[in-house]
Structure formats: C-alpha cells, structure tokens
Amino acid sequence: MNKVDIACIIDDDPIFVFGTKKIMKLANFCNSFLVFHNGEEALNHLKPIIESNNDSLPDVILLDLNMPVMDGWEFLDEFIKIPCEKEITIYIVTSSIDPMDFDRAKDYDNISNYLIKPISSQKLQEIMSASE
Domain named Response regulatory: which ranges (predicted)? Predict the structure, then answer.
C-alpha cells in the first residue's frame, strides 16, 4: 500500500482531529498532517500553495461538512474553482447521515467517498489502497 505524503484534516471537532491523527499514525497512513478548523482557514492556507505550484499540497483531504465560519460545502465550492495540476483526493468525513448531503456529494466529481464518523483504521487502509 502506498503511504500518503501529506494528509489534510478540515474539521472543527478537536476530539475527532486528535483521534484521526492517532489512527493515521498507528496505520502508518501519512508522513505529515495539515489540520484546519474550518473551510476558510483551509482555503486561505491551500490557495497560495496551489497557485505557486508548491509540492507541499496534501494528497488526501478529509473534509467535515458542518463547521463554523465556512462549512465543507462552501469550502468545496471555492476549492474547485482553483486550477490545480495535482490531483487531490477528497473524502467527506461527517456525522451527517442526511440523504440530501449524501446526494449532494455525488454532484462533485472530486469527492472520492462519503464516510460517516468515526473513521476507522480499516477505512484508512481502504483509502491507502485506493491511492495506489
């Protein structure tokens, strides 16, 4: 299985972030993390990196939907407008079981999967296998 270089977690729940980072470390999922607490913070950090063609872009983004300031949907709407040469795999990781959210996720070509929290080491293994 390929190890991800940089994984990005965009989520306002510190317990989820802590747990996910711990599971990622145990699964030897990635070399490093980027963590943002809302979509705006992530966008403000990632946009200049994308525009400068820097290599420090994440390979995988785990995106929560329900966050303050800028939610996951707003982040996606802005993020997909930025031309990017690198393919970044985006997974929605949320506690939302709303069928409308699930259906809406299908409208985005760059979303690889819709995962319900909590995330498990088995799901991380599946993500690593998919990135091979």
Answer: 6-132
